[in-house]
Automatic annotation (TrEMBL):
Keyword Cytoplasm: no
Transmembrane feature ranges: none
Keywords: Signal
Domain spans labelled Phosphatidic acid phosphatase type 2/haloperoxidase: 120-242
Taxonomic classification: Bacteria, Pseudomonadati, Gemmatimonadota, Longimicrobiia, Longimicrobiales
Coiled coil: none
Superkingdom, natural source: Bacteria
PANTHER family attached to this UniProt entry: AT30094P, SPHINGOSINE-1-PHOSPHATE PHOSPHOHYDROLASE
Protein name as catalogued: Membrane-associated phospholipid phosphatase
Signal peptide extent: 1-19
Length: 278
């Protein structure tokens, strides 16, 4: 049983590290107004390799879904208050932690007139939104039962069952996709604004996201394949949002939300003034 737990944790820990080495070089320099527009593909061959790695990991774990769940529900693990408390911390780090941190980073950047900070916070938030839209639609369509209500049948799905109740929204993991969207977008932004911190930052961010996924299995809210799929959705959401924004500076959302200037009001409040760029 312990070997199964260790194998599952090793697979999830290795996936983001491998992905980071393959797909997270610093974003290409931004195009300035008047520069020639280069034809670039949104999805690249490198993305296909990483997607294949995630799919292979999910396929390998699928036959072990029940075994991993059984192992993590052993009294030896569930009775430990330290493990239970740690799982709760990382669950909250995924939701609502990641969205609150990203919005807070954006707001701090705007208030302190730090464009790089605001840029990173906005794009991480966009990645989280994108990941949650994809995850939410998939959850409701697939209708996979959570392990807590169907521990003996990891393949129990009901088309459109997710619209019925939350207990049939297991696949994929929303907490995991949120955490990995934040980790991938933040690490890509870090590579853009502070490349000297790119590697240690990615290790910390992806490690935290992985532990969010482990906590969801520990709490019997998701199967291992739910977590791996959520990680894939979140990772790609982060990569693509940052890539698009830095290849298309001055897009509508950036113009709207990064062209504001916070001005203190006389009564202690703050007013936002938009600068319109033609």
């Amino acid at each position: 049983m312990r070997l199964v737990v260790l194998f599952s944790a090793a697979v999830m820990a290795a996936a983001p590290a491998r992905a980071q080495s393959l797909v997270a070089p610093p974003p290409a320099p931004e195009r300035q107004r008047g520069d020639s527009i280069r034809s670039e593909h949104l999805f690249t061959r490198r993305d296909a390799y990483v997607a294949g790695g995630f799919l292979a990991g999910a396929a390998l774990l699928a036959p072990l879904d029940r075994e991993v769940d059984d192992a993590l529900q052993e009294p030896a693990y569930q009775s430990r208050k330290a493990l239970s408390g740690t799982a709760s911390v990382f669950r909250l780090l995924g939701i609502p932690g990641a969205p609150l941190l990203s919005v807070g980073t954006y707001a701090t950047g705007r208030l302190l007139h730090r464009p790089g900070l605001a840029d990173a916070g906005l794009h991480v938030t966009e990645a989280i939104v994108m990941a949650n839209v994809v995850t939410g639609v998939t959850k409701n369509l697939v209708g996979r039962a959570r392990p807590a209500i169907s521990p003996d049948d990891p393949y129990g799905v009901e088309f459109l069952g997710g619209f019925k109740d939350d207990e049939h929204r297991s696949f994929p993991s929303g907490h995991t996709s949120t955490a990995f969207a934040a980790a991938s977008a933040a690490s890509a932004e870090l590579a853009h604004w502070a490349p000297e911190y790119r590697v240690p930052g990615a290790v910390v961010l992806y490690s935290a996201a992985t532990l969010v996924g482990v906590s969801r299995m520990y709490n019997q809210r998701h199967w291992a394949t739910d977590v791996v799929t959520g990680a894939a959705i979140g990772t790609f959401s982060g990569w693509k949002i940052v890539h698009f924004n830095h290849q298309n500076p001055g897009n509508r959302i950036d113009r709207l939300l990064l062209s504001t200037t916070p001005i203190p009001t006389g009564d202690g409040g703050v007013a936002l003034v938009w600068t319109i760029r033609r």
